TrEMBL record:
This is Hemerythrin-like domain-containing protein. It comes from the Bacteria. It holds the Pfam family Hemerythrin. It comes from Micromonospora qiuiae. Residues 14-126 form the Hemerythrin-like domain. InterPro entries: Hemerythrin-like.
Length: 145
């Protein structure tokens, strides 16, 4: 995760980055269950979805709305939303009776790249692009910069 530009000092980015770490850890536990037999993959898939789905909702209903409205990053946001749909589509529709684990592993690879793009591309760019009044609107309740 990014630690060099200071974007985590913005409360929403800090929250989303912490969630990225939690999601990445859950994804790696799922990967280990699938590839090495370390744990129950179905239970670990559910664990991953439980952190991934709310996280995506926060991104899309908050930061992404503001970035689209600003305009200069709308295309990048659309691409990231498409990746959300793709990854959720695979992970959320796994047949628990006959899971296709290779498709899940491929989605986990895409998820890793997606998080990396947000951490090292979108988040630092958003901090530069969005004005402070926007960040004030985006600040989670109870947090201040």
């Amino acid at each position: 995760m990014c630690n060099y530009c200071g974007c985590r000092e913005f409360p929403l980015i800090g929250q989303l980055s912490a969630e990225h770490e939690e999601i990445s850890n859950a994804a790696e536990r799922l990967r280990a269950a699938i590839t090495k037999g370390h744990g129950d993959p179905v239970a670990l898939l559910d664990e991953l979805l439980a952190v991934l789905m709310p996280h995506t909702s926060v991104e899309e209903a908050g930061l992404f709305v503001e970035l689209r409205a600003e305009g200069s990053m709308a295309e990048a946001v659309d691409k990231l939303c498409g990746e959300h749909d793709d990854i959720h589509g695979v992970l959320g529709q796994v047949d628990r009776a006959a899971p296709e684990w290779p498709a899940v592993l491929a989605a986990l690879d895409r998820l890793r790249r997606h998080i990396d793009n947000e951490e090292h591309g979108l988040f630092p760019a958003a901090v530069i692009t969005l004005p402070i009044p926007t960040w004030d609107r985006l600040t989670p309740q109870g947090n201040t910069t």
